[in-house]
Amino acid sequence: MEMGLSRVHFPVTTLGPGQRLGIWFQGCHLQCQGCISTDTWPKAKHLTDIDALLDVIKDWIHLAEGITISGGEPFEQPQALAYLVHQLKRLTPVDILIYTGLPFAKIVNDVNVMAPNVDVIISEPFVINEAQTFTLRGSDNQNMHLLTPLGQARFADYQYQRMDDQHHALDMMFDEKGVIWFAGIPKRDDFLTLQTLLENQGHQLKTTAHKTKQHKRR
Ligand code: SF4
Fold first, then answer.
1. Which PANTHER family does this UniProt record tie to the protein (predicted)?
2. Which of 39, 119, 131, 201 could potentially form a cystine with 208 if both were Cys, beta carbons 3.0 to 4.6 Å apart?
């Protein structure tokens, strides 16, 4: 089974509890205004064999305290997603959280096929004009669904938790070409602030943000 893959990273510390393995799908047709991940919108030019991927990252899987799958839009590749979570659950007992920009009603059949391999889903599109007050969510229309006892145990504290400064953290990574990318839920103006700071010091910041005043990454 193959998937369109954007990237994989370990550890991710800002998209759920513990040191997590992050897997990002490539391809998203939703085009939410304010998305900062427009690099994940096009379909993957090359597909990745999921078994080969799991073999490459097997050491991270055994260290991870949880797994977060995001994108892109993972449910645009439902068969690959189902296979991926099935194989991951064979390799590790830790929780699996999936972010989707689709309404839960639209993915519920796919979720039922994947049960019980998915513990938590955060659904609904990012809406830039909504308030942003809940942890792990870019806008307050997004819902957290606790699907298993493990999901309940790991995420119940987050379900209605309000964001405070302690939760305003981002993971920052550099790839081999020197490109920087972030994981986590930024405040609306975080990237504008960073851009202004860098420009004031004579640097340029090019982002993959959809052209609006505010940006979001999940
Ligand atoms: S925020 Fe997520 S769902 Fe929305 S366009 Fe960006 S990648 Fe797609």
1. ANAEROBIC RIBONUCLEOSIDE-TRIPHOSPHATE REDUCTASE-ACTIVATING PROTEIN, PYRUVATE FORMATE-LYASE-ACTIVATING ENZYME
2. 39
